[in-house]
Design a protein that fits this description.
alpha+beta; 134 residues; five-stranded mixed sheet; elongated; single chain; 16% helix; Immunoglobulin-like
Length: 134
């Protein structure tokens, strides 16, 4: 192998390792759960038809560019098409306890049924929280 070939292989190896290091993140979701309050003190998976849904996400080892997205879906709710996406929200954060909420409009009641909150970390589905309205 010529010296130029060795230099080229070395340069390519450095580029590959640099690309891998840039795309690797230590960010993780330490804990995620549904709650009846924004502080997360009242954990629940069952809501009444007039409650606000709260998803509490504890983000750990996260650089300040970490993206968290929550997609709220009515999986199987009365009068709704199956798997109807209700809303989604994205935020960028470092280590923190993040609170996501979904509030019904004034006078609107959530249909009875099964729901979920899909939590994405840097674009990848990480956790799914399931809950019900009764």
């Amino acid at each position: 192998m010529s010296p130029n070939q060795r230099k080229l292989i070395f340069a390519l190896a450095v580029l590959v390792l640099t690309a891998l290091a840039c795309s690797f993140s230590t960010a993780n979701i330490a804990e995620a759960y549904m709650a009846a309050d924004g502080d997360g003190a009242q954990r629940t998976t069952v809501y009444s038809d007039d409650q606000t849904f709260y998803a509490i996400v504890e983000l750990a080892n996260a650089p300040d560019t970490t993206e968290v997205r929550v997609v709220w879906t009515a999986v199987s709710a009365e009068g709704e098409a199956p798997n109807t996406v209700i809303d989604e929200v994205t935020t960028t954060s470092t280590d923190a306890i993040l609170t996501f909420n979904l509030t019904n409009e004034a006078g609107f009641l959530w249909p009875s049924g099964d729901y979920k909150a899909d939590i994405y970390l840097n674009g990848e589905l990480n956790t799914t929280l399931t809950f019900q309205v009764q």
